[in-house]
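During the reporting period the student researcher (J.K.) took over the structure-prediction task from the postdoctoral fellow and processed the backlog of single-chain submissions. One of the processed entries is reproduced below for the supervisory committee.
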Amino acid sequence: MNTNPEEQALLADAAQLRRERMQIGDPEATEAIRRGFAHSPASRKRRFLPYAVAAVVMAVLLGAGWWQGGPIGIPAPHTAKDMSWGALERYRALSTKDVDHVTLESAVRNNYIQIVNKSVSSGPYRITLDAVTADENKIMLLYTATAESGQEIYKVNSAKVTDSNSGKLLNSKFQIGNGDGRSWSGQSTVMLDRSQPFPSRIEVDFQVASVNPGKLGDPKTGTVAADFRYSDRMKIDVDLEPKFEKTPTFVMQPDRSISIDGHKIVLSKVEMSPLLTRATFAIDNGSELDFKTKQSIWDKLRYMTIVSTNRNGRAVQLNPVAGNGTDEGFEQIFSSSMLDKPRSLVLKMYIDSDTGAPKPLKDLPVVELKIK
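J.K. obtained the following structure tokens:
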């Protein structure tokens, strides 16, 4: 076991988020999602800033049960409670605490999952990569850490993913997890650039953080760096199944528009793959607008969601999980239901033109744009 100053800083950040989750409420959570793309500089393309914001959002979801009722005024999406997750049953409860849980549920339901079940040990620690799912835009990893009785698992504090073919470190962005001290189950997301070669073989490099017996229940855990012990790095190699590379992204061009403050905003493109939905918005003369003007427009877009209805009439809500500003406008990343073969897709945009205190979403006007 060893101590790691870099990881000590990360754990201190986690402790701060844990303190913040006791103070942040539902309205702030919705605002956090909105601010994720509102504050992104227009010159930065494909920088998924809401993943930084998502840490705060997830603190709310995990700590306050915010997602169980959906964001203010929006019904929680349908969940197939009777669906069997088989060997991945432990991840069902974890998934429901993720803003992107619709995507993983769809992947499990449609058998778009690769069971890996590979393990490696180091000292008292053992990490198992249970499963992966992927497409040309994204990889999702499911893994479990355990330790012998001499240690209590705090979390898997690092899961780095490398493209084994190129040696390039991939863009690991988001992690959630939970545990009981004896084990810890996690889910990590890796964003891909589909203009680059697909990483058909990956190496996942894990590190586990733990504390001595009895320390996990100490209120100070997460703030005292000396309490933590870290495993050596543990690596697992995986050849991804060919179906992940062969499943293409479906591109639609809805050309739907709304007007905000006299500016025409066009939903110019929607890309949908098994694990991701990306909506691209262009503002008329967007490249000529200064950041302050763009921010004023974005500030009025309080929340967006996509309602997806499949051929059996089952409707789910595709949640916003990331976003960024572009020179021409902005992009928003949502969950995906592509594997369920949606019959219709409708974007719902909640508009707040009032500069006063934010209103509950249920009290805001909604603009619906048909995608499909």
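The committee noted the following: Residues 1-80 have pLDDT under 50 and may be disordered.
J.K. will present the remaining backlog at the next meeting.
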